[in-house]
Amino acid sequence: MKKIISMLVMSMLIIGILAACGGAKEESANEGVNKDSDAKVLKMATSADYAPFEYIDTAKGEDIIGLDIDIAKAITEKLGYELEIQDMDFGGLISSLQNGQADFVMAAMSATDERKESVDFSDTYYTSKHVIVSKKGSGIKSVDQLKGKKVGAQLGSIQEEKAKELAESTGFSYESRNRVPELIQEILAGRLDAAIIEDTVAKGYLEEAKDVEGTTIEDADGGYAIAFPKDSELKEEFNTELKKMIENGEVDKIVKKWFDAE
Asked: Counting Cβ atoms within 10 Å, is residue 211 exposed (0-12), middle (13-18) or buried (19+)?
């Protein structure tokens, strides 16, 4: 009898050990699968007030949409990354790369020499023009007619740099605002005589706000590109896919989706 009980106890111990080993192996395998299936999340910073490049379509929800968003989603998907988008003022975008808050920036940002001192840029994916936006009937049709006027521009934008440059040569004062809608409101309220805005962005406001008009003045400098922290490995990864998208017409298709590119 004792022998039978001993055998039963031994059998139960062996079964328990085998079950424990099997369970440990299964947990380890599951952990490996979960780890491998988790795509790395890339954080993109933008300033979502710049339709059609990036803006919040309140009629359809709070998601940020636009030309830049479509390109960013296409590239990150091709590279196997998940995308997280952060909205902030344009003036804080460069610092978001420098302090590790963002992995890259897409915000209709021109790759100027000054910015290249702080961040790295991808190849150019779009080139734009400057537009002087003023109240309808203002009579402002050229840069020379800005003399003695108060002109606005978006803080940190290429248009702000152009306003500074033209203010010295033409003789007008300029003020910066964080967001483009603020510039339009200041013009309508009479606190600004005009603002210098990127052409495709200006087009949206010119169509929506019937009390303003615009005049194209010249090409913007540098062209729009994706910004990265200095020496980021993402630059080459993104450039590889961006080049493919430009060559196969995918970028052009996205541009045409959002506006009639000339």
From this structure: exposed
Question: Three-state SS string across 192-203, please?
Answer: CCEEEEEHHHHH
Closest CA to 196 of 232, 235, 170: 170
Q: Determine the residue type at 161.
A: E
The pLDDT of residue 256 is: 86
Which amino acid appears at position 75 of this protein?
I
Residues 6+ apart with CB under 8 A from 175: 150, 151, 152, 153, 192
Please, what are the averages of pLDDT over each run of 10 residues along the chain (262 residues)? 41 42 34 48 96 88 93 98 97 97 96 94 91 96 95 92 92 95 96 94 87 86 89 98 97 85 40
pLDDT at 261: 39
> What's the pLDDT at 170?
94
Cross-strand bridge partners of residue 196: 132
- CA-CA distance, 106 to 181, in Å (whole number)? 19
- Please give the angle made by the CA atoms of 124, 126 and 131, to the nearest 5 degrees: 130
3-class DSSP state of 231: coil
> Do the Cβ atoms of 228 and 237 come closer than 8 Å?
no
Nearest partner of 148 among 176, 175, 135, 167, judged by Cα = 167
